[in-house]
Amino acid sequence: MSEMNIPKTYKLFVGGAFPRSESGRSREIKNPAGEFVANIALASRKDARDAVVAARSAQSGWANATAYNRGQVIYRIAEVLAGRFEQFAATIRETTGVTSKQASAQVQSAIDALISHAGWTDKFAQVYGGANPVAGPFFNLTVPEPTGVVSVLAGEQTDFADLVRAIVSVITTGNAVVAVVPESISLAAIEFAEVLATSDVPAGTVNILTGDVSEIAPWLASHQDVNGLDLSMLEAELAKNCEELGAETLKRILRKSGKEVTDLHRLETFVEAKTVWHTKSLS
Amino acid sequence: MKFLDYAPAPESTSILNLRGSYGLYIDGKWVSGRGGELTSISPATEKPIAKFELANEQDVDLAVKAARKAFEGSWGKLSGSERGKYLFRIARLIQERAREFAVAETLDNGKPIRETRDIDIPLVAAWFFYYAGWADKLEHAGVGPNPKALGVAGQIIPWNFPLLMLAWKVAPALAAGNTVVLKPAETTPLTAMMFADICEQAGLPAGVVNIVTGLGSVAGSALVGHGGVNKIAFTGSTAVGRQIAKTVAGSDKRLTLELGGKGANIVFDDAAMDEAIEGIVNGIFFNQGHVCCAGSRLLVQESVHDEVVERLKRRVSTLRVGDPLDKNTDIGAINSKAQLERISKLSATGEQEGATRWSLDCPLPGKGFWFAPTIFTGVAASNTIARDEIFGPVLSVLTFRTPQEAIEKANNTPYGLSAGIWTESASRMLRVADSLKAGVVWANTFNQFDPTSPFGGYRESGYGREGGRHGLNAYLQAGEVK
User: Model confidence over B330-373: pLDDT tens digits?
Assistant: First the structure.
């Protein structure tokens, strides 16, 4: 006797919880064959604002965790994701129509990105900053600090591995994330939220909204309390629009570039160099 | 003259050899500007210094084309070590002509000769010397393997440190292998034009450095919007910075912005008071307060407020305001009539909103633009003078009780450029420094600058850094992996 399949309800991921959209909106996700797979929540402007509040509340706590601790939490995300490898490969295959091999490669690539960044948390400050030999009796040190709340905006062509790489890059240095993902990777993204929720990532550090990116992205780009925008995965027209809106509050912007965006460049985009001077004297 | 008054000790202007009129410096030649002309005046006397032709859109286009040609030709073909030699030579030429530049800067800008002689010009030479040494070491800059220049850099600089801002922009750009089109501020083009002369003396290939005096709304806009420019570096107001960020949106142009500030200078009750008082004075009255990183908000722990304010007034009373060319002058002229009006208006607003004003009672010259050093006490965090950048010799004093309150008040601004901390407790200093949202934190000192030390802001004070390896990276990109 075959048991009945229990389909999952996919919701948003905000402040460590899984709420439905306050708007009550949802949208059907179908597989490439046109068959119904699940409903996703269609996030609203209010959901985006709530996510920013959650991210802001979480950010300083996450930033003040030790770099060693942040590294272990990110490594834990990789462990939990690896434990659900087959589930992710199946979801990606089913919703995007890629081959099994391609789907597995995406999951593996996401795990590799997580592990690599787990090792960045306590090394980035030394690579990025250091002592400056000023011409005078001063102690002078430059250190990176997180920019704050960064919105990661996924495009229609963004795959699961790209999304995970973008999110983990932002949190590695102590920022908090509000990610917005389109239908194409919604299911994998929300399943990734389940991984985050069980990986000791403090609630609110990563928030994931599913829905219409072109509707939500401009609200986040003009939000006063968002400090950075990862536009590198967005379509050109929407990216330009968001960059213009972000200029109003001088947000830090990661653009698409001709070449692949390197991990180091990503990390550097969402930190602020702080330089501290102190006098030296015997008196 | 009273007892202990100082006799005038003016620096001679005979060292200068100014022309009556300056054109634009494009492709290694002096050419006429087609955007009209203006006469630069000394803000201390309102006497004309020289005429400057202004660039229009076509002139900017010519300059960008010349820079492109040099980037793809002479300059682009040089090795890093050869580029470095030109920059070392420029540093030496600046040192050799340091006094001439100091006098010219003081004449054109109105800042005291003591500052141009001891701070501005020595730092200009240091900046070129520092970045000269980077030119052959770009693979250590940290942008990845085979780093390469961006191309043509458009650079727009302000009037408060004219030649120093030129050095901050030009030195790293050239070290990284870019060529530049630089637009000096319309009220202070003199030393930039004299720098063209230095480029000639250094034998710099034509088109590597192009200097176009002009209005922001004409030449500045043309440069920012030009399709042949790969990078914009701007220092100036947050409002203009925002506009530039909007203009370059969606393009491949890289952008660094050095914008406004409203720096908090925090004095704890255990501070070494003599040093703190000097630091407060230096923080706000250096360069007439025309400093984006000025410590314009003094946050004093309540228990020492009265003592600090009293000692501060006593110290400020010894400052000498007047002829910037006088070697004894501490505070020179306000750079322009427009800036003087802005400072006067914001100070009037401070009084209207209920803060208590104290201005130094000192004689001010009849001609020129002058503003006596001013301290506002009883300032609330919501007051305009505690929020808006005044960019003048005006200090707002606020109080706090606990370190936590000091941090919250210091960070209560959309800006994030600089901050100061005065305390004898090292652990408190480090903890407070960690919590301040500011790109530069000076602890038991203020307004220190060095080419090895990155400078730049958080939040609406802009992005990118100038100085150090970070300042070099603003002009580099990762190359192909071989």
Answer: 999 999 999 999 999 999 999 999 999 999 999 999 999 999 99
The answer to whether the CB of B421 falls within 8 A of the CB of B198 is: no
d(CA B134, CA B129): 9
Query: Rounded distance, CA B427 to CA A66, Å?
Result: 18
pLDDT at position A6 is 81
Contact B246 A244 (CB under 8 A): yes
> Pseudo-torsion of CA B22, B27, B29, B31, nearest 10°?
-50
Give pLDDT tens digits for B391-440: 999 999 999 999 999 999 999 999 999 999 999 999 999 999 999 999 99
Residue A93 forms contact with B (CB below 8 Å): no
Nearest-CB residue to B445 (from A247, A249, A279): A279
Give contacts of B257 with chain A, Cβ < 8 Å: 250
Contact yes or no for B238 and A250 at CB 8 A:
yes
Question: Does residue B293 carry a catalytic annotation?
Answer: no
Cα separation of B346 and B333, whole Å?
18
Report how far residue B156's alpha carbon sits from residue B168's, in angstroms, rounded to the nearest whole number. Answer: 11
Q: Could you give the ipTM of this predicted complex?
A: 0.96
SS3 assignment, position A87:
helix
Hey, is the C-beta of A123 within 8 angstroms of any chain B C-beta? Answer: no
- A-chain CB neighbours of B414 within 8 Å are 249
Q: Do B463 and A252 touch (CB under 8 A)?
A: yes
Q: Mutation test of the interface with chain B: which of A277, A282, A283, choosing the one with the most B Cβ atoms within 10 A?
A: A277
How confident is the prediction for chain B on average, in pLDDT? 97
Distances (CA, A) of A114 to A72, A164, A261: 11, 8, 16
Report CB contact under 8 Å: B442, A227. Answer: no
pLDDT band at B478 (very low <50, low <70, confident <90, very high): confident
pLDDT digits (tens, 9 = 90+) for A13-44: 999 999 999 999 999 999 999 999 999 999 99
How does pLDDT run across B293-344, given as a tens digit for each residue?
A: 999 999 999 999 999 999 999 999 999 999 999 999 999 999 999 999 999 9
Question: Is residue B50 classed as helix, strand or coil in its secondary structure?
Answer: strand
Q: What is the pTM of this model?
A: 0.96
Please report the DSSP string for B232-286 in residue order: EEEES-HHHHHHHHHHHTTSS-EEEEE-----EEEE-TTS-HHHHHHHHHHHHHG
Q: Does A222 touch chain B (CB under 8 A)?
A: no
Residue the block writes with tokens 């929020």: B387
Query: How many interchain CB pairs under 8 A, A with B?
Result: 109
Name the active-site residue from B53, B186, B258, B389. Answer: B258
Q: What pLDDT, on the 0 to 100 scale, is given for residue A180?
A: 98
Within A81-148, strands assigned E span: 130-131, 138-146
Cβ distance of A275 and B241 shorter than 8 Å: no
Task: Confirm or reject contact between A135 and chain B (CB < 8 A).
Answer: yes
A275:B246 CB<8 A: no
Which chain B positions have a beta carbon within 8 Å of A65's beta carbon?
A: none
Assess whether pLDDT exceeds 70 at residue B1: no
Q: Which residues contact B122 (CB under 8 A, 6 or more apart)?
A: B98
Neighbours of A64 (CB within 10 A): 12
